[in-house]
């Protein structure tokens, strides 16, 4: 095989790949459009006043694992304690933090040590102390002996959770006051069927928060966070909403996830064998549902119920995306039996298939496209227009998806002003130049680390209030 | 061949460019117009609000004038808003407004929309307006819409609309829905609870319904209407053959606070079904009757975890009164019961009080109680005290721990 024929084959394969990807995104966007409309309608006509006071509203245990989140945990817990919901408890698990997280919590919430006997269902490390808040009777803080990771912290919290439904929230997340009302809505209608609910959330960078509440939405300065806003909208609205409609929502994000506790027990709780727990538990949930022919559903909602801090520095962004890539590869590898398996229906094709071809192998196509196009041009086999063609197709593939996602997002919830929307629309055209390459580097590194079996979290340092104002 | 293919791909790329540019343009244009439309709508609704809240809203003539002028110009969104807003008005004004709504020429159109519009959103709005009108014919129309529809959103809108009427005919219908698998029963129940007290008559009629689901919900909802009628109905249902109904009866009796039902609740603590025992324990938590403590204590050793757990929580609620009963439980053979007793004593502040007595006066009995708590594995709180304690009291606490449990002493000495 000559270099030319090799380059030509690579070029054609990559072009076809990106066109197929664009078609797949378009297919998802059409479904998302209808799903978002349906959810928006439900939301508009729900009587939340009644739900927020009714004793039939199902109570929820909120679980917040925290490892060295001293800078930001207070704003998270305050926002959670501000939730409008008839009955909920908050369980914070300090996963052996070394930055004084526990002392901050003791001081802020008037924590007192308690002896509480609990039933241990999972093989987890010990809890050294249990605290209850004097100020907030529904707040419990558990101090874990050694950092066994987020999955283990969540399993311990499950042992303490009083209620049938749990809502896992990351300590860097700020929730909207009506987050639980919105996310529990589908469960209140079908408690026998819905075992998991995820909802969209945004990047906090650039927003003002006062006493746990978002007081101002703005994009005060362009930063990495702004691009992540676009990415999140594309991911949540463009993809996951459609998967939810197709009944294969394979990824409920760990930053805000509602799960039915008895279902989590059934499937064995969160697993510490993976870099992070969220993607894996959703795959496992579906694996269990299909294998045991259960009528359960995992649902994704389009509402922005929470805000999380996105990395502002390139190195931190790379660390985060490296971790995401690793966990995707680990999960896909572990659940490879789902792939194109007719027993799993659409899930095996449009769900797991997407994860294989885009999330796992996508990076190879991206790198190959660049390499083939550049080598082709430098060796004189390709002309410059062929180089631009493949780059253009790559850009349009993402831009098209982002723009339609933005449109759907704005129809569902009018969070952003016209000015902010204009900025986001313009940014969706330039996202490919620079930001996309950073993500690609992270994905390459993540793939290498996956091969090296690196399962560390690689936590990045929080800024606390990036580009936004956080006040108590 | 490569040239041919790339030519095709260029065409596709051009289509994608046009599509992306159109999406961008459409997103921004639609955003611009939506913002303008929303702003106009907000202004219109604010105008309606200020007209409804007009200072002279109690003056009939003024209300008649305002209602006439507002409703004759109003579109479906405004009518829905008005129907919502008038709920908070004084009775007489509400009647005038409702009369105007009934006289609306558009009402026929709204009825048609509610029954057969192709737009789901329009149907929902129209159904909600019909709920605000509250006449018998509209209630029947709403019932037939719910019966005929298979769409959950339409059914829910219909149920909500019926809920707004607060009348007996809709109440009867909603109660019948509880056994029909048509919609979420808890949602229907939460709407039924917004009905005034006379709804209890309809509920009582169904207390012997064949369907245990209906009986369960009747027993549950009755808790919302405390009084003799509810209490006596619940007592009649106390020996229901269905354990779910019995559990609901326990819970409701507790919420109502019917003291004469205590003996039934004590018996229910021995029920074969754990959830009946659980709800009996929970119910006893509402009474705060001293004699109940001795009845609840054995539930700390129940064969079901959740019954034990709730017994512990209920005993905490009893406060100081439970302390003398808990001290012997510190020596129970059951580990959970021992530990729960220690946990409650600690949470009630008793443990700290006893420790103060021990460290200041060296009281023997106080020392024994602390030793029992340590043996019951209730000692984490001692760590907090040790951290703050001065040298003298610290030493006597450590000595006591050493005397009681050598291993614990080593562990605590290291840690604190």
What are the key terms here?
heterodimer, A: about 475 residues, alpha/beta, ten-stranded mixed sheet, three-stranded mixed sheet, 15 helices, disordered C terminus, B: about 425 residues, mainly alpha, 25 helices, about 0% strand
C-alpha Rg of chain B (nearest Å): 33 Å
Secondary-structure-based class of chain A equals: alpha/beta
Largest interface: A-B, 56 and 55 residues
Straight-line N-to-C gap of chain A: 67 Å
As laid out across the biggest beta sheet of chain A, the strand order is 3-4-5-2-1-6-11-8-12-7
Class by SSE composition of chain B: mainly alpha
Order of helices and strands of chain B: HHHHHHHHHHHHHHHHHHHHHHHHH
Number of strands of chain B: 0
Query: Runs of chain B with pLDDT <50, length 5+?
Result: none
On the 0 to 100 scale, the average pLDDT of chain B is 88
Q: What does the main sheet of chain B amount to?
A: none
Strand content of chain B: under 5%
Strand content of chain A: 15-25%
Count of alpha/pi helices of chain B? 25
Which of globular, elongated, flat, extended, rod-shaped describes the shape of chain B?
A: extended
Describe this structure in words.
- The complex is a heterodimer of chains A (472) and B (416).
- With 472 residues, chain A is an alpha/beta fold.
- In chain A, 51% of the residues lie in helices and 16% in strands.
- Chain A has 15 helices and 13 strands.
- Chain A has helices at residues 3-44, 48-51, 73-81, 101-109, 150-160, 179-189, 224-245, 261-267, 278-291, 314-334, 346-360, 362-379, 384-412, 418-430, 435-451, and strands at 60-66, 88-94, 111-114, 127-133, 139-144, 165-169, 173-175, 194-203, 207-210, 213-217, 256-260, 297-308, 470-471.
- Chain A has a 10-stranded mixed sheet with strand order 3-4-5-2-1-6-11-8-12-7, sandwiched between helices. In chain A, strands 10-9-13 form a 3-stranded mixed sheet, with no helix packed on it.
- In chain A, helix 3 links the parallel strand 1 and strand 2 (88-94).
- Chain A starts with a helix and ends with a strand.
- Chain B has 416 residues and is mainly alpha-helical.
- In chain B, 76% of the residues lie in helices and 0% in strands.
- Chain B has helices spanning 2-52, 60-73, 76-85, 91-102, 106-116, 120-133, 136-148, 152-165, 168-177, 185-192, 199-205, 212-222, 228-236, 243-256, 262-268, 274-287, 290-296, 305-318, 323-329, 335-347, 350-361, 364-375, 380-388, 391-404, 406-415.
- In chain B, helix 13 packs antiparallel against helix 14.
- At the A-B interface, helix 1, strand 3, strand 4, helix 13 and helix 14 of A face helix 1, helix 6, helix 8, helix 10 and helix 20 of B.
